[in-house]
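Final report, results section. Input specification for complex C-07:
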Amino acid sequence: MSSSEAFPASGVPPRAGGTNVADRLFKGTTLLFALSVVAIMVLMAGAMLRTALPAIRAFGWHFPFTSTWDPVAERFGALPFIYGTLVSSLLALSIAVPLSLGGAIFLVELAPHWLAQPIAFLIDLLASIPSVVYGLWGIFVLAPWLRTTVQPALGALLGVLPLFQGPAYGVGMLAAGMILAIMVIPFISGVSREVLMAVPNSQREAALALGATKWEAIRTAVLPYSRSGIIGAIILGLGRALGETMAVTMVIGNRPEIALSLFAPGYTMASVIANEFAEATSDFHLAALIEIGLLLFGVTILVNGLARLLVWSVAGNGAATVRE
Amino acid sequence: MTFDRYRRRKRVNVLVSALAFLCAAITIIPLLMILGHLLAQGAKAVNLDFFTQLPKPVGEVGGGMANAIVGTLILIGLACLVGLPIGIIGGIYLAEFGNNKTGWLVRFMSDVLNGTPSIVIGIFAYTVVVLPMKRFSALAGGFALGIIMIPTVIRATEELVKLVPTSVREAGLALGIPQWRVILRIVVPSAKAGIVTGVLLAVARIGGETAPLLFTAFGNQFWQRRLDQPIASLPVQIFTYAISPFEDWHRQAWAGALVLVAMILITSVLTRVVTKGQDRSMR
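Structure output:
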């Protein structure tokens, strides 16, 4: 419903001899500001590419597949960080997805309005707590609890699996995955709710009229209709988890090693940048860190682009924004 | 037999409903726990000194984060100088003229920017502000935060300006007012409250940002008036204190977190309440 559709570009009845100068000036100015968003993205990619160039030249394709990270010898490989980022994010999703979806289904399909409203509000509130506060809570509440209670129990119960072996430090991959799960829940839940709400009521009514129970109506009519939107919501959550920095840095243990156990400390791409950037020992070290940033940037662009397309296809243009 | 099957279906329905309720309940438990710990630990630690004193050197008990609180406000101010013009004027473009390929591109880029990790935006600010100036500075921190603001502000402005009924525009144009004046004097003012809401939400978001500040604004144990020097901020101070080995710094980190969350929650809850009322009146 933009007004440029309803009116000629000048906004006043066309006069002989051209359009209104002031209008064109105004439109041009606003266009300039809007285009600066595009310019920022281009500049961001360009500036990072330029500063990372020494590292890209030196390591080429080996960079993401090498696991040495030695600032003193100036030998850099990003594999442990890529591994840590992927594992912590996937762990987070495996916890957050069922909880967010179940919660969204409850809030949109089952709960009475007076109950759904405040719960949705509280879940949204989770999104506005700063990352560093999650980290603080992670260090002093979550990690000790994992160390004394959860990890011994998991070790005793599922210790045969390599995932749950080794000493219980508290901090480590498991703590990072859990804190990330808490942090992405509001995003996945929020977008899922919007996608579910976009399902036309006629779909539900049709199923109910055929004698389906509420759950059968959800399973056979609502969920299939909103499937790609929900997948989009999950990928959007993945994008958040991949780039999340502070909370993870504070609880993952920061050790650039690849360990199978979820109890072991790890390291992520974002955390190594947060920890080493300000104290980088050399320009070359800095270049390697910026190359990690560049990789992270590329991955999140891909992931977010995919998610937006999926969500847009279901819920229209506006639904992809989570209100923060 | 059919009766049995009906009963089973009913039972499955009840079971799934209970599970879904459980999911919703579990998701809010961490929030309640975090808020509970913040209140318990933070309330013990917050005192007048916290708001008026500088940080004490390692080993001395006491002191506060007065410089970090002011630093955060300065950084937010600088961020607004970068983020608001681009966000608001860009949003006006999207709402009024953005129904074309350019609009699609800007919207897409703004969404991508929204999903870009804040630490990556910090690296960007480092390469374009810190490297040329050869030092960490408040300017670099404000620049990074300003860019993070843009997507939220641009989206809020676009949506709220679009909500203004076409009839209002038509009325203005029918009176012979040029389009630019209709937009600036009639359309934008009617969307003003909504735009302010979007701006406040963006401020609430950047107020807690830590990662991009670590190597742009850096941090400072003292007062700093000059914008080309490193400056303290509440989130970075909380981070530094939280990962330190000192008991008294942990106490202060909780106090800082409580103050930060209180500032953010008050801002975002207030704006939400305002928006709710507005949405309804506009539909």
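Strands of chain A lie at 69-70, 75-76. Chain A touches chain B through 103 residues (CB under 8 Å). This concludes the modelling results for the funded period.
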